[in-house]
Amino acid sequence: MKIRPLNDRLLVKRLAEEEKTAGGIIIPDSAKEKPAEGQVVAVGPGKVSDSGERVALQVKEGDLVLFSKYGGTDVKLDGEDFLIMREDDILGIME
């Protein structure tokens, strides 16, 4: 199934989280937090400004992004977990 985000929304796949700490301690599943990093899989056409013009998004497909911990809506597509979020929920693009 394919999905095309609308307006200023993005489809983001969370990056896998670390299984161990820097000191080598293995983190159990019950103690793990959802990562706030992901890769942009699809982007909408952009936001419509007050003047009626479409403003392109700053992020593009393939960008690695840092997003708000509680931002976005969890969705499951073809057995994989994704987030649909607004561009405003993106805190930065990782380079």
Secondary structure blueprint with pairings:
Elements: E1 9-14, E2 37-43, E3 47-48, E4 54-55, E5 64-67, E6 73-77, E7 80-86, E8 90-94
Antiparallel strand pairs: 1-2, 1-7, 2-5, 3-4, 5-8, 6-7
Can you describe this structure?
- It is a single chain.
- The protein is mainly β and 95 residues long.
- It has one domain: 10 Kd Chaperonin, Protein Cpn10, Chain O (Roll).
- It has strands at 9-14, 37-43, 47-48, 54-55, 64-67, 73-77, 80-86, 90-94.
- The two termini are 30 Å apart.
- It is found in: Cytoplasm.
- Keywords: Chaperone, Cytoplasm.
- GO terms for molecular function: ATP binding; metal ion binding; protein folding chaperone; protein-folding chaperone binding; unfolded protein binding.
CATH class, please? Answer: Mainly Beta
How many separate helices?
A: 0
Q: Roughly how many Å is the radius of gyration? A: 15 Å
Please name the CATH architecture.
Answer: Roll
Overall number of domains: 1
CATH fold topology: 10 Kd Chaperonin, Protein Cpn10, Chain O
Q: In CATH, what is the homologous superfamily?
A: GroES chaperonin
GO molecular function, one term: metal ion binding
Pfam family, one: Cpn10
Main location: cytoplasm
Subunit structure: Heptamer of 7 subunits arranged in a ring. Interacts with the chaperonin GroEL.
